[in-house]
TrEMBL record:
A single MF term (Gene Ontology): oxidoreductase activity
Lineage of origin: Eukaryota, Viridiplantae, Streptophyta, Embryophyta, Tracheophyta
Coiled coil: none
Full protein name: NAD(P)-binding domain-containing protein
Organism this protein belongs to: Papaver somniferum
GO cellular component entries: chloroplast
């Protein structure tokens, strides 16, 4: 499939997300190389992408809808992710906004922090683990030849701030106990029996609140490991801090979060999307997992040779 003249039929899941929409449009613009499909959750999202027959309505928790979208595809780009929202009244001018709409290079991480929540059914365990597992299983049953999965840097750090947003643990696997402001630092013995526990519902808005007890597992990394063990050729891209600028920077690959402590951990969503598209065409991207960052805007030369970039990666996971 890679580096051939045959068109590649690709499904982008999460196609209405900020990065997913860019990837979908990039593939659609290259109709000489790709036949693109998109998976979205709502009719409104479908219409925003043009409303064509190539856009499928579905849910990552519903395998039947995934099967319909994946029949006959060659490759899958997984860009679904749990998205926390801002608790009303916790941060000026941000009520109900997604975290990705609030955080950016201009956000002062040393100042007041918003509070976040996940909508019912949209917790990281459901979207980033079960939902991605469903996609991988369905892709395998449909004979998909290559999966590109976009994850996140920070999976090696239990204290990464993403794990403290809405107590959903985007990166870390947890069990939950009802607490107000105190976060326990020790493992919970109940985890030996129950992987996920929420003692109580705490009101209608936000839908759920609780405080986390970190346990040494990772929802996103759990899905990544599942993909790596699936036997399907894969490319796992662990993106750094995302921004919404144009892109076209000099890209850098790393491993084990080594870029996180540098100025190179930011990357434009457009560059992540471009890396996904390029990975579909380049054999050197397969059976590899890597962190992806970039030089600061205006520094270095824009990356053009993705084959050389992927060749620098030596890690399978």
């Amino acid at each position: 499939m890679a580096e051939s003249n045959q068109k590649i039929t690709v499904l982008v899941t999460g196609a209405s997300g900020l990065t997913g929409e860019i990837a979908f449009k990039k593939l659609k613009e290259r109709s000489d190389k790709f036949v693109v499909r998109g998976l979205v959750r709502s009719e409104a999202s479908k219409q925003r992408l043009g409303g064509g027959d190539e856009i499928f309505l579905g849910d990552v928790m519903d395998k039947k809808s995934l099967e319909t979208a994946m029949q006959g595809i060659d490759a899958l780009i997984i860009l679904t992710s749990a998205v926390p929202k801002v608790v009303p009244g916790s941060y000026p001018g941000a009520d109900g906004k997604r975290a990705e709409d609030v955080f950016g290079e201009s956000f002062d991480f040393n100042g007041p922090m918003p509070e976040f929540y996940y909508e019912e059914g949209q917790f990281p365990e459901q979207i980033d683990w079960i939902g991605q597992k469903n996609q991988i299983d369905t892709a395998k049953s449909c004979g998909v030849k290559h999966i590109v999965l976009v994850g996140s840097m920070g999976g090696t750090d239990p204290n990464n701030f993403l794990n403290h947003m809405a107590n959903g643990n985007i990166l870390i696997r947890t069990c939950f106990r009802l607490r107000r402001k105190h976060m326990l630092k020790k493992a919970c013995p109940a985890c030996a029996l129950r992987r996920f526990e929420l003692v109580t519902q705490a009101g209608m808005s936000p839908p759920r609140t609780a405080t986390q007890i970190p346990v040494n597992f990772v929802w996103k990394r759990k899905a990544e490991q599942y993909l790596a063990d699936s036997g399907i050729p894969y490319t796992i891209i662990r993106a750094g801090g995302l921004d919404n600028k144009v892109g076209g920077r000099e890209l850098l690959v790393g491993k084990d979060d080594e870029l996180l402590s540098t100025e190179n951990h930011f990357i434009a969503r457009a560059d992540v999307a471009e890396a996904c598209v390029q990975a579909l065409q380049i054999e050197e991207s397969k059976f590899k997992a890597f962190d992806l960052g970039s030089m600061p805007e205006g520094v270095g030369e824009p990356t053009k040779d993705f084959k050389a970039l992927f060749a620098l990666v030596t890690t399978r996971f």
